[in-house]
């Protein structure tokens, strides 16, 4: 990346940005919201996996993920064409079609990115247009000493896997299984997580956009509170 | 001009001369030589038992003969295949030789020398007035074997047998003329990648060659995973040195110092054979440091893939090599620019690399003369399914599907009707017989919604339900999706659910619209080509076999009578034979009973529609009928035989 500034056009708005920066954060900084789940500020190599940040770019043959598209002089971007909107809405419907949709009893209620995106895309959080697919996992996996994981809420964005890998503390979250059975596995390492810095780190829980990965302590007190109300 | 004595070509000539000498000794052996096809397919068909049979019979009859293991000729329908070279006879090819037949061949042909056992004979490998030759068969006549020329004829474990047929001559030539020349030849030949997408190999090499970063890496992609496809396995097992020569030439053109063979671990024999081939080539200085004194070095090793279909995708393959979970990465950067560990990495399919030596040896003009203008060369298909002669077929690009299925592979089995082909594996499409005049090349297949793929071709007859075929392939891609991107992970699952409910007769017309909308979105929105091509079987069946979808939805009828929920079995009393009990014995749920006139009938409440009775009913009666929808069962007014009658009988 260089310090050269370039001018790009996003939805007819002229924007100045450093050449080579990723398009998604550039748009976000300029108050152009593009929905996204898997992207985190500072990623060198965004996974482009949630497919919510698709945009149209003049000269590209199809929609591209803005999270890892680098800006260059004269770029013409459309973030809100009918086709893009349809694709994003469908991607969103696909995501919620596999979720348990229990917002009221969820630790991330009101701070959940899915709720935010639903509002933006005018989509309900429980889709009627696709049948519900129940993932073949328990609602709660809590055999980690400091974390709880709720697979039915997970959107497989991989943020937790990314931050855990960045920290290089010997223990690493990773994906397991294939297809719809894909899941974040808490025990990819043979090491005992109790002996590691998970207790003080909890970075994975901090970046989860939907409340699928939480600090065990916080989760317990949240559940206790729910019980009281 | 005289070549200097120490040139690569001269060194190779010495190697080739001694190889030819050794092979001549074998060819002119006063003892018979028995070649047994022992690739994985041959072994599965019992080739090792055949060898044991030969050994035992030779010993019993006090005879001596050499037994050699060779690779695969590609004639799956005729395995185990044996070639016998008996002095005084041309080399003869025999089919379906088990241990018993091996004994007969030894006694009748090798011992007495009088009877070449015509009953097992396919033909002579060389023209001979006393025997039919292979060219008398359409299969051999129509094929054009370039890549598979020596498969099944040479010993894959013996480097001399490859050297003796001109092996590594292309490499020596390439080393003398340099990598830039090799690159230009392959570019001029317009060799397109045989892994499926058809990207020009020369172009890929050029991109990597021009990147300044070193060291560069050349990978041979042997992670073949399409259901029913086994071209790469056969090439690895039957002519490993051709792969290595192609790899070395590609590395030379790219300027790579390391070569890697990525072979799936489910191909243990291919792994062993390739590992041994690397050692043999290194011993002769055809790989390793300073190859043939040219100054060019190439270290080659084998890496075993751990069984994920998606690892055939370049970027996932690189992740897997790096020790990570095999998940595709967005491109760009393309691996040729920034691949494994950030270094330029060229990944070519086994077939692509196997084609390179002959291009270099015979020149790009020769290659361009085969096939079509935009897709020169040959295509290798593993033709499976309902054809008379399934197996590996190498035909020039540009032949029609009809020619491939009906002429080369002998047409449809059992006099059934040619209904469709599924070409290109789970990423490919289903084409109806009406489109059988479609020309086989990269672009024509794409136009009709299918793709060349890596060469899987499943032939189907009228008994195959196209909705079920779409469901099967969608189930496969869903199960092999890496789970990374939303469209592929969840989208293909929805496709599968929709297709499944249609096969159960629970679909609606809205489902068809949903299938199409989802498919288009998955194509546009997915991250890698696994997702981007996964809906092809759905879209092509919807396009060409919509009437079958409608029959399932509107009439609850499966026209191919395949979807279990929508069919029923009954026994035609006219055809059923008194006293025959075959079906009763095989029925797992005791649903078949004897009627008052001592014929058989099926209790529909007990029947689980397994279809076993169809298979066991003797062909002379052929009395079990399938109907769809189930209500079509005629009322035959059958009553069970009473116990009293039964005891009297």
What's the helix and strand layout?
The complex is a heterodimer of chains A (229) and B (649).
Chain A (H helix, E strand, L loop, with lengths): L4 E6 L2 E6 L4 H7 L24 E4 L6 E2 L10 E3 L3 H16 L15 H9 L25 E3 L9 H9 L6 E3 L6 E3 L12 H4 L1 H5 L5 E3 H13 L1
Parallel strand pairs in A: 1-5
Antiparallel strand pairs in A: 1-2, 3-4, 3-5, 6-9, 7-8
Helix pairs in contact in A: 2-3
Chain B lengths: L7 H20 L5 E5 L2 H5 L2 H14 L5 E5 L11 E4 L6 E3 L4 H13 L9 E4 L13 H5 L16 H5 L5 H9 L1 H11 L11 H10 L5 E7 L8 H8 L1 H15 L1 E9 L3 H16 L15 E7 L8 H8 L23 E5 H13 L1 H5 L9 E8 L5 E6 L4 H8 L9 E6 L5 E4 L9 H6 L8 E6 L4 H15 L5 H18 L5 H17 L3 H5 L2 H9 L1 H9 L13 E4 L10 H5 L5 E3 L5 E3 L9 H5 L7 E4 L15 H6 L1
Parallel strand pairs in B: 1-2, 6-7, 6-9, 7-8, 10-14
Antiparallel strand pairs in B: 1-3, 3-4, 4-5, 10-11, 12-13, 12-14, 15-18, 16-17
Helix pairs in contact in B: 1-7, 3-4, 7-11, 7-14, 8-9, 8-11, 10-11, 10-12, 11-14, 18-19, 18-22, 19-20, 20-22
């Amino acid at each position: 990346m260089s310090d050269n500034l370039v001018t790009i056009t996003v939805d007819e708005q002229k924007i100045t940005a450093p050449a080579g920066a990723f398009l998604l954060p550039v748009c976000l900084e300029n108050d152009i919201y593009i929905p996204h789940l898997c992207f985190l500020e500072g990623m060198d190599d965004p996974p482009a996996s949630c497919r919510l940040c698709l945009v149209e770019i003049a000269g590209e043959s199809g929609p591209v993920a803005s999270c890892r598209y680098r800006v260059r002089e004269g770029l013409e971007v459309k973030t809100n064409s009918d086709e893009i909107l349809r694709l994003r809405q469908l991607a969103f419907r696909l995501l919620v079609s596999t979720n348990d949709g229990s917002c009221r009893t969820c630790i991330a209620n009101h701070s959940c990115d899915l709720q935010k995106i639903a509002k933006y895309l005018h989509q309900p959080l429980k889709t009627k247009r696709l049948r519900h697919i129940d993932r073949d996992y328990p609602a709660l996996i809590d055999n980690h000493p400091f974390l709880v994981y709720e697979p039915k809420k997970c959107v497989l964005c991989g943020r937790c896997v990314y931050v855990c890998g960045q920290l290089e503390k010997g223990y690493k979250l990773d994906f397991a299984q294939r297809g719809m059975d894909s899941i974040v596995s808490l025990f990819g390492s043979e090491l005992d997580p109790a002996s590691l810095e998970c207790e003080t780190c909890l970075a994975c829980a901090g970046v989860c956009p939907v409340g699928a990965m939480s600090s065990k302590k916080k989760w317990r007190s949240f559940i206790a509170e729910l019980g009281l109300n | 001009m005289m070549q200097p004595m120490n040139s690569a070509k001269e060194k190779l000539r010495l190697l080739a001369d001694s190889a030819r000498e050794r092979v001549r000794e074998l060819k002119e052996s006063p003892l018979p030589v028995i070649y047994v096809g022992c690739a994985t397919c041959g072994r599965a068909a019992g080739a090792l038992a055949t060898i044991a049979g030969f050994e035992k019979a030779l010993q019993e009859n006090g005879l001596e003969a050499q037994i050699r293991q060779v690779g695969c000729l590609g004639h799956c329908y005729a395995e185990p295949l044996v070639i016998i070279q008996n002095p005084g006879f041309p080399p003869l090819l025999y089919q379906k030789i088990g241990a018993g037949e091996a004994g007969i061949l030894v006694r009748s042909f090798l011992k007495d020398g009088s009877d070449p056992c015509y009953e097992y004979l396919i033909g002579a490998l060389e023209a001979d007035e006393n025997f039919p030759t292979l060219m008398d068969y359409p299969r051999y006549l129509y094929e054009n074997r370039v890549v598979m020329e020596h498969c099944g004829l040479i010993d894959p474990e013996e480097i001399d047998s490859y050297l003796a047929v001109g092996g590594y001559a292309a490499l020596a030539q390439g080393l003398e003329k340099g990598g830039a020349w090799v690159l230009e030849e392959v570019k001029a030949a317009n060799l397109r990648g045989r892994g499926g997408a058809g990207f020009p190999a020369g172009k890929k090499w050029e991109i990597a060659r021009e990147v300044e970063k070193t060291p560069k890496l050349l990978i041979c992609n042997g992670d073949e995973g399409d259901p029913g496809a086994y071209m790469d396995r056969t090439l690895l097992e039957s002519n490993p040195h051709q792969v290595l020569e192609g790899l070395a030439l590609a590395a030379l053109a790219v300027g790579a110092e390391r070569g890697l063979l990525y072979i799936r671990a489910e191909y243990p024999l291919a792994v062993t054979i390739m590992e041994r081939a690397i050692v043999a080539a290194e011993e002769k200085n055809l790989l390793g440091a300073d190859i043939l004194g040219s100054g060019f070095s190439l270290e080659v090793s084998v890496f075993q893939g751990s069984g994920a279909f998606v690892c055939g995708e370049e970027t996932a393959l690189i992740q897997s090599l790096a020790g990570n979970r095999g998940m595709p990465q967005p491109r760009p950067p393309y691996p040729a620019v920034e691949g494994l560990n950030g270094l330029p990495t060229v990944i070519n399919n086994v077939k692509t690399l196997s084609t390179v030596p002959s291009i270099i040896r015979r020149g790009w003009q020769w290659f361009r003369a085969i096939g079509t203008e935009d897709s020169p060369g040959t295509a290798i298909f593993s033709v499976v399914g309902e054809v008379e002669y399934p197996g590996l077929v190498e035909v020039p690009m540009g032949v029609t599907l009809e020619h491939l299925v009906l002429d080369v592979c002998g047409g449809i089995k059992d006099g059934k009707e040619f209904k469709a082909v599924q070409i290109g594996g789970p990423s490919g499409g289903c084409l109806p017989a009406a489109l059988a005049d479609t020309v086989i090349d990269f672009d024509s297949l794409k136009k009709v919604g299918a793709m060349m793929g890596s060469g899987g071709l499943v032939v189907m007859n009228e008994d195959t339900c196209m909705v079920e075929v779409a469901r099967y392939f969608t189930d496969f891609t869903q199960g092999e999706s890496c789970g990374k991107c939303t469209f592929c992970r969840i989208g293909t699952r929805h496709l599968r659910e929709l297709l499944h409910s249609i096969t159960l007769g629970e679909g609606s017309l809205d489902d068809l619209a949903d299938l199409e909308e989802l498919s288009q979105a998955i194509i546009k929105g997915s991250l890698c080509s696994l997702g981007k091509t996964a809906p092809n079987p759905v879209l092509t069946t919807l396009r060409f076999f919509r009437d079958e979808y409608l029959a399932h939805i509107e009439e609850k009828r499966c026209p191919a009578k395949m979807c279990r929920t929508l069919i029923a079995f009954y026994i035609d009393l006219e055809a059923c034979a008194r006293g025959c009990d075959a079906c009763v014995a095989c029925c797992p749920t005791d649903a078949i009973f004897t009627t008052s006139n001592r014929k058989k009938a099926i209790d529909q409440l007990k029947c689980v529609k397994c279809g076993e009775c169809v298979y066991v009913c003797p062909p002379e009666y052929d009395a079990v009928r399938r109907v769809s929808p189930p209500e079509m069962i005629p009322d035959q007014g059958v009553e069970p035989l009473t116990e009293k009658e039964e005891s009297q009988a």
